[in-house]
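Notes from the pairing session

We agreed to fold both candidates in a single pass and log them together. This is the raw record for the first candidate, unedited. Please don't reformat it; downstream parsing expects exactly this layout.

Candidate A
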Amino acid sequence: MSKFIKELYPTTKVWLILGLIVCTVFTPGYLFQYSLFGVAVVLALCSGILPKFLSLFFKSIFIICLFIFVIQTFFVYHDHVIWQWGWLRLSNTGLQTSYLMTSKIVAIGALLIWFFQVTEVKAIAAAMQNAGWNKKLVFVILSTMQLIPQMTALTTTIADAQKSRGVETEGSMWQRIKSFIPMLGPVVLTSIEQNEERVLTLESRAFASHLRPTLMIPVKKTRVDRILSVIFVLGAIGLFYWRVFK
């Protein structure tokens, strides 16, 4: 099952994600949106990436939603206060607003995390080129998608280098802040140097040529991909029509 999901054409998974996002936006309330997290968990389980999916979700989306929930519930003033302790107020309106805001973030964030964990960046690039996208636009999109992982890996490498030189990079929060500031310079300079190397590499591979490049990754759309794409698109259109015109 995991092999089947990972080998699906990238646009097939894109239509699935877009269809579920349309359902998230046009379905009232928050129960359905929170249930989509369960759908994402099932998809991650079938894809064989459940531990990695949960780890990334709770390190990113969960923290953001928890922060929004606390601020919106206890620090933003609403009517119908049901509990109060000093300047902290808990109201039914605040709870409902927090549920509505965080539910959409949870649903969309979980689905996007699953998509990027089961879809390789090079497969996305190949699908864009197959669709006839401008290669400069493809490069900009892929560079943006790879920016955070590259910066994270670069920061880890520089931190290890600093640690080997005797710089204390672990300990209290204040100690980590003090060790992080000297790393900003090497991170910025190395990023600029890598961009120059990337430009030279692209020019050496005839990136400016107007000829259609040869794809080295065998990404093909099968009959199953076409059927699933039609189902996902029709489902999203049907839900949109039902919510807007009914």
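Candidate B (folded immediately after A)
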Amino acid sequence: MTSHHVDVLIIGAGISGIGTACRLRREHPERTIALIDRRQDIGGTWDLFRYPGIRSDSDMYSMAFEFRPWQQPQLLSDAGSIKEYLHETAVEYGVERLITFGRRVLRADWSSADARWTVAVEDVDSGRIEIWTCGFLATCTGYYNYDSGYLPEFPGSADFRGELVHPQFWPEDLDYAGKQVVVIGSGATAVTVVPAMAPTAGHVTMLQRSPTYMYNVPVRDTLAAALARVLPERAVYRFVKWRWVTFQRITFKACRRWPKVMRWWLLRSVRKQVGDGVDMAHFTPRYNPWDERVCAVSDGDLFAGVADGSISVVTDTIDQFTDSGVRLSSGAELPADVIVTATGLQVQMLGGFELYVDGERRDLHDQLVYKGVLIEGVPNLIWVFGYTNASWTLKVDIAGEYLCRLLSHLDDHGKAVVVARDHGDNLLDESMLDILDSGYARRARAVVPRQGKRDPWRMEMNYKLDVKVLLHDPIADGVLEFRDAPVNADAVA
């Protein structure tokens, strides 16, 4: 059985893992680190999804790392460009040579006696088990199951004679040229894949159970392009990032404070783009803006397709699949050669591995999260989880910087172990994702950590607040407990 030891072991080589590793390489070059990932390439989400049009739904200025600004002109970027950016970043900081691919984490055990983690890892090709040990564990695994997307049970789906595709497992050889395509769903994936398929398909119908709020985002930021001609790149990046982060936060807060006004504003924008001949009932949700995530429409491509007739939007529920399409509850039938089930993600924590502390199983659903980064009662583990109401990477960046601050604090005070303890009975029966009421957030309530009654046990999804809490507030706050290395521990972080 192969064994390895490093100071910090990072699970995941997507945006979260690469960002965290680069932070450590910058600020703690003396520490040994390693990354393990079950896939065969860098990228995580951006390596997994291959459906047409796959792109970011956040602006790239806030999605890129603070320490390596986005330099390309696209505001919303395709998956290939994002993967290339991640690869170049990993190479620049020497992280790419620290990644072991094709490894699935099965279990992680913390030993207080040894002040270290022991992580059981499976080589996915051979089935061989490897043992990794580390002083500090960083989980950068995202929040959904790579093996299984969310797929409701559709009556009669076995009878359908055409192609039935889930976007998470897109066939490389799928031919939809000139064909009738029905895309089930109205979330971020559907809003991306529908206009991407429309120019090639005979016709694309987006079939939704209920409408989603959408807004137009330009592919290029013209102001950034203009500023780049007269200002240094770093100054342009900082200004544009600040502008988009501020816009995101103000829009989110305005939707919560003045939902009727923001609803009118969003729907008015859609009306102007789809034209007067389109029934706005298909774009008018029953809920308030930002009760669910608002979908970004790249350069208005979906709206343009609806306006020119290459895309149809149908709001109805499914009675059953037939051999040639979908029969709706209204009695109407949608003919289809290809049906795409853009029905969402299957939420999963920690990439599915089991977590133990001194032999006791820890289920994240039963735990609080300290400042959005540490799990209550779990020593020497940072949980890197991004924002759901803004760019994911904004939180990843400051979580990685907080880890560096925390490790420096341990060094400065001669400590080896840190653990967050709740002494105030703060645990609520409330999901940390209850800020949203989308389908994946509701499904996640059974698996994600819970909210606390008060700080630092609440996740507010607020970048400005988190910058203060994670980067400026003192590390030692009376909630964190610090311990010396045990005398029998020969290697700790």
